[in-house]
């Protein structure tokens, strides 16, 4: 009787049943570039692909703070490029802190100290991009070290090579209206340059995935592969890469959740969700409740969707203020939008102009319907007002 009871307790003890959690973030990876490497098909075949994820901000700093807190920037304090030091760590609890308090060993490897909340890490390595060598090898070392831990672990790996390349080859090379970059005549060469970077990121991801599988043949690891935002390939004059506008090429992104023990492989979720839903989803998976004494997340769990439930598109809010462009606003967001999965309203505060798109019929956001679709414009403006 005692042995049976002991077996039951061990089997159901949270630390024994909770998976390791690894998040790999491929910085600035557009959804339409996932065909640049076969590893992404492999990830989909082994997991759940969320094809329509809206990021809170089309730049890393605010996007990652929103992901790690499940909150929009106006709640967690980071809603602009210059606001990293205004993260409300006294009243917000990050994903890392939740996992640490739940008994996880927590580790991360990134290239900047301002990109995410730093609370709760047992091991945090920040290697500036101009000092970094051997990203793949260093990340695999982190994976190996985490799998040597006694406790379940959380590991966050930030792959920034696409971003670094675009900074060098686009942002520092062209002006905000340079006809060598913008316009249809340059689109093919822009895409070729961009996809060379995403193919390299795919090579990296393939090796990382192999390392995880080698360390964990029994499949006790929940893997989330994601990006923080997309970016321009010259579609709109005034945005060389990202962070200036809120068009879908930069805010409509993707996630892969992979845990074959629990999630049905080759599942596609095409309902619209948000990056603020990631923290609630992970906590739901490991059955950790929110701390109601602190600020609560704005997002909600996606677990039912991951498990096959059908759901309407979730209303999503995004905002930004560029460090350059036609109307820079690095201290305060000046472009914001709300989308219900079909209709999208964009407000530019600096110019006092609105744009309205039916993104199902007009995915390139070329035909502004604000002046003719009054009902949809008014409806979405009422939704937008909830966030400002």
Percent range of helical residues: 25-40%
Shape descriptor: globular
SS-based structural class? Answer: alpha/beta
pLDDT averaged residue by residue: 94
Major sheet characteristics: 9 strands, mixed
Features:
388 residues; alpha/beta; four-stranded antiparallel β-sheet; 13 strands; 32% helix; disordered N terminus
Model description:
The structure is a single chain. The protein is of the alpha/beta class and 388 residues long. It is built from 13 helices and 13 strands. The strands form two sheets. Strands 1, 2, 3, 4, 5, 6, 7, 8 and 9 form a nine-stranded mixed beta sheet that branches. Helix 7 runs parallel beside helix 9 and helix 8 runs antiparallel to helix 9. The longest helix has 29 residues. It is globular and about 60 Å long. The termini are far apart.
What topology emerges from the helices and strands here?
Layout: H1 2-12, H2 14-17, E1 20-26, H3 39-46, E2 48-54, H4 60-69, H5 73-76, H6 95-101, E3 105-110, E4 123-126, H7 135-147, E5 153-159, H8 161-171, H9 187-215, E6 221-226, H10 248-251, E7 252-258, E8 267-269, E9 273-274, H11 278-285, H12 303-306, E10 316-320, E11 335-339, E12 343-348, E13 353-358, H13 374-385
Parallel strand pairs: 1-5, 1-6, 2-8, 2-9, 3-4, 3-5
Antiparallel strand pairs: 2-7, 6-7, 10-11, 11-12, 12-13
Short description, anyone?
By secondary structure, this protein is α/β, with parallel strands linked by helices. It has helices at about 1-10, 15, 40-45, 60-70, 75, 95-100, 135-145, 160-170, 185-215, 250, 280-285, 305, 375-385; strands at about 20-25, 50-55, 105-110, 125, 155-160, 220-225, 250-260, 265-270, 275, 315-320, 335-340, 345-350, 355-360. Strands 1, 2, 3, 4, 5, 6, 7, 8 and 9 form a nine-stranded mixed β-sheet that branches. It has a four-stranded antiparallel β-sheet with strand order 10-11-12-13, with helices on one face.
């Amino acid at each position: 009787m005692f042995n049976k009871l002991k077996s039951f307790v061990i089997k159901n003890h949270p630390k024994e049943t909770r998976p390791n959690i690894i998040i790999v973030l491929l910085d600035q990876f557009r959804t339409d570039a996932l065909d640049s490497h076969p590893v992404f098909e492999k990830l989909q075949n082994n997991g759940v692909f969320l094809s329509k994820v809206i990021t809170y901000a089309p730049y890393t700093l605010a996007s990652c703070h929103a992901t790690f807190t499940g909150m929009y920037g106006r709640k967690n304090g980071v809603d602009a490029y210059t606001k990293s030091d205004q993260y409300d760590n006294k009243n917000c609890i990050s994903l890392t802190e939740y996992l640490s308090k739940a008994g996880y060993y927590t580790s991360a490897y990134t290239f900047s100290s301002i990109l995410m909340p730093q609370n709760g890490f047992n091991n945090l390595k920040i290697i500036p991009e101009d000092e970094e060598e051997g990203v793949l090898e260093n990340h695999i070392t982190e994976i190996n070290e985490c799998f040597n831990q006694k406790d379940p672990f959380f590991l966050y790996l930030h792959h920034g090579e696409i971003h670094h390349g675009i900074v060098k080859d686009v942002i520092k090379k062209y002006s905000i209206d340079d006809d060598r970059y913008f316009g249809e005549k340059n689109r093919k060469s822009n895409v070729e340059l961009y996809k060379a970077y995403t193919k390299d990121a795919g090579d990296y991801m393939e090796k990382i995935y192999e390392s995880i599988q080698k360390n964990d043949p029994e499949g006790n690891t929940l893997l989330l592969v994601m990006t923080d935002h997309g970016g321009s390939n010259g579609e709109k004059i005034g945005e060389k890469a990202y962070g200036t506008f809120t068009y879908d090429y930069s805010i409509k992104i993707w996630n892969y959740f992979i845990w074959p023990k629990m999630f049905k492989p080759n599942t596609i979720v095409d309902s619209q969700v948000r990056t603020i839903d990631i923290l609630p989803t992970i906590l739901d998976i490991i059955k950790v409740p929110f701390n109601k004494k602190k600020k609560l997340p704005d997002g909600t769990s996606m677990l039912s969707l991951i498990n096959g439930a059908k759901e309407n598109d979730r209303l999503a809010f995004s905002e930004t203020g560029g460090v350059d462009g036609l109307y820079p606003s690095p201290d305060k967001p000046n472009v914001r939008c709300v989308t219900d999965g079909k209709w999208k309203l964009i407000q530019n505060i600096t110019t006092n102009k609105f744009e309205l798109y039916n993104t199902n019929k007009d995915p390139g956001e070329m035909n502004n319907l604000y002046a003719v679709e009054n009902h949809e414009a008014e409806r979405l403006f009422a939704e937008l007002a909830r966030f400002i």
